Amino acid sequence: MRKSLLLVAAILVAFTLTPALADETVTIGGSRAVLIKPKAARGSVILLPGGDGAIRAGDNGDINGLRGNQLVRTRHAYAARGLAVLVADAGTDLKNAVDYMAAIKRPVTVVGTSRGTLRAAEGIARGVRPDALVLTSGFLSPDSGSGSNVMSILGSSSALPRTLVIHHRQDGCKVTLPAGVDPFIKWSAGRARVSWLTGGADEGDPCQAAGHHGFAGLDGQVVALAAGFR
């Protein structure tokens, strides 16, 4: 019994002394981003938040803007799954970001949410080639409710990497309507598939992070799907 208690105590001490993965501020092409880097990463993700995309990174890995955004608030959950994580600012050049994370560990998956899906498409239209793409609550097609969407930006699906769409069936945001998903999947010519989510919480502005648009109450499911897509 004494040996067992000592072993448990040793494990607890070791656990408490194990440092948490730290956020650090890095500069990529003149733009600040926030990096979380496990010692033995099995891959990398670049997170593109929605809204104006301004994360306002401080000097020590702190994020002062969009902290409630679904991708920003779950960044440590991706790192806990063994992925190197870059939270990119709207001003971060996506090609530079992909190159930066590829030097850490491939495959590199770009994950964009809401208006971040437009930024992902704009980068791909300029020739950026991530290994995979995840679009959550996306501006996908004209049926999503906006004239500016992934389909209109890319023009052709030929540039689309392997793509996972994650969408809430009750997303009430007028520019990311669920009706936009199926036309996008058909347009992708087999390059994209969709995972639908239901349930969770829905409060406030239907285009903000506290509702179905931001997968409130469903963070674990979103991270599991996005992190597992390779």
How many strand units?
Answer: 8
Portion in beta strands: 15-25%
Topology pattern, helix = H, strand = E:
HEEEHHEHEHEHEHEH
**Any idea what the radius of gyration is?**
18 Å
Main β-sheet: number of strands, strand sense, barrel status?
A: 8 strands, mixed
Ranges where pLDDT stays below 50 over 5 or more residues in a row are 1-19
Major sheet strand order: 1-2-4-3-5-6-7-8
End-to-end gap: 46 Å
Number of helices: 8
> What structural category arises from helix and sheet content?
alpha/beta
Shape: globular
Percent in helix: 25-40%
- What would the average pLDDT be, to the nearest integer? 92
Please give the structural blueprint.
Elements (H helix, E strand, L loop, with lengths): L1 H16 L5 E6 L2 E6 L6 E6 L21 H4 L1 H6 L2 E5 L6 H11 L3 E6 L1 H11 L6 E5 L13 H5 L7 E7 L12 H7 L4 E6 L21 H10 L2
Parallel strand pairs: 3-4, 3-5, 5-6, 6-7, 7-8
Antiparallel strand pairs: 1-2, 2-4
Can you give a write-up of this model?
There is one protein chain. The protein has 230 residues and is α/β, with parallel strands linked by helices. 30% of the residues lie in helices and 20% in strands. It has 8 helices and 8 strands; from the N terminus they run H-E-E-E-H-H-E-H-E-H-E-H-E-H-E-H. It has helices at residues 2-17, 70-73, 75-80, 94-104, 115-125, 150-154, 181-187, 219-228, and strands at 23-28, 31-36, 43-48, 83-87, 108-113, 132-136, 162-168, 192-197. An 8-stranded mixed β-sheet has the order 1-2-4-3-5-6-7-8, sandwiched between helices. A hairpin with a 2-residue loop joins strand 1 and strand 2 (31-36). The radius of gyration is 18 Å and the shape is globular. The N and C termini lie far apart (46 Å). Mean pLDDT is 92; it is low at 1-19.
